[in-house]
Amino acid sequence: MDRVQSATPQHSVGPRGADRSAPSAGGTGSDGGPGSRRAAAQRQQMRQDLAAAAMELFASQGYEETTVDQIAAAAGVARRTFFRYFRSKEEAIFPDHDDTLVRVADLLASAEPEEHPLDVVCRGIKEVLRMYASTPGVSVARYQLIRQVPALREREIAVVARYERLFTRYLLGRFDTGESIPSGWQRGGEDDSMLAEVSAAAVVAAHNHVLRRWLRAGGRGDVEAQLDHSFEVIRRTFWASSSPGARRRGSVVAPGASEVSGDVVAESALSASPGGEVLITVARTDAPLDVVVDSIRAALSGARDC
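Request: output the structure for the sequence above.
Response:
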């Protein structure tokens, strides 16, 4: 397999057909001025060009049969330039995740302390969804390729795990902070790490379920609306209860009011008592989310009756 250790991309784009590894002239350095922004845009374009060349070659001649040299030649650059942007050919299939991860981390860091932490995480994962939805054709082709190549599937799992770890760290940070937190949820004591991991995993799983369904449909439909619906299902099941004054982004929940319709609102998992029992359920990955939620709700009802 073509693979070497790489550094952060430092070079920019030039005319197609030549080795486009020379940095652009002029600019203002790394202070965020026009030159810096132009260089960043050029680096991003180079990554996209390499990824597009890789996808086209993988589709036309097969993943295993395609080499880094061929990808570089198709993009009009030298082999060494490819390795300034990607460590291996499978990494070229996911050119946007590094930037998206930074964007999501910035979103978490800038969130208002009064906003419900789980709503912040939902906003974060939506940035990932928008990355896929911005290029439906590429995303569908990538999905079809990943299903055929185990190495790419493993790479995708590793990429998704980075978001989940980021969300878990954020939620743990909210547990550990000395600042006041929304009274609609409580610190879980010795269960903090478990609650943070389960909550982060639930949001990521909802995103993955909606994304796969959208990709299988050829990238058609309002995928953001589908994801919002999934979030509401999760909120009703795990953390929908709101106490007086608890704030959602852009709104305030009045005392005695609820943002969720329905006669029965599930008790928040984050406000559960530390002495409560743990319920483990198993479901198929292709099962509809509402079916999974119904099975969990039924299992919880059975556990309470015992």
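The chain has ten helices and two strands.
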